Amino acid sequence: MASTNFFQLATWGCGILAGILLLTTLVLWLRQSERRFAFFGYTAFSVVLTAGCFALTLTPITRPVVAGAAPYTTVYDQGSNRAVIAVSPDITPAQLELTLRQAASNLFSSGRFSQGSPVLTITARTVVHPAPGISEPIVLGSLQQSLMRRQDPEAHIEIFGGAFDHLEEIRSHS
Questions:
Q1: In degrees rounded to 5, what are phi and psi of residue 133?
Q2: Stated pTM of the model
Q3: Which of 64, 69, 38, 50 is nearest to 12 (CA)?
Q4: Is 170 a residue whose pLDDT tops 60?
Q5: Is the pLDDT of residue 2 over 60?
Q6: CA nearest neighbour of 70 among 99, 92, 93, 97
Q7: What is the mean pLDDT of residues 106-132?
Q8: Count of other CB atoms within 10 angstroms of residue 164
Q9: What interhelical angle do 2-30 and 36-58 show, nearest 10?
Q10: CA nearest 126: which of 116, 141, 112, 115?
Q11: C-alpha distances in angstroms, 100 versus 3, 113, 120, 126, 128?
């Protein structure tokens, strides 16, 4: 990833700067120079800067984008092991699968906790209006993946074909 390479390079550069400042500070300290305290501060700041750049190399800053995923809105998420997203009623089953994968990537957090289940469950739903003043929520599918992996190759995706049939029926009556 490009941002990781940038921060690796920045860590390397800041580390060299910190080493040079450390040597300079040691020389100034041994000579009892008036500037030794200033250089101690410069050195400490450069060490903190190096540690910060190193930390940014450990975790990606940007989230991966799943090509073909449709826009969605998170409607329920308490940071636990369940979340619900809302999608457009015009979504196709293929787009829904990609959208669930995108949501799983975006909603993944190592800080999520579970109460007995190490699985993150994301449910996708839409709301249709079969008649004026009537709203009908329809659950279109769900994804279950490990709470330990952002890109879980064993994620289980279930698309509810009956829900899409019902959606098509409502559209044909409108």
A1: 85, 0
A2: 0.67
A3: 50
A4: yes
A5: no
A6: 99
A7: 83
A8: 17
A9: 160
A10: 141
A11: 25, 20, 12, 13, 20
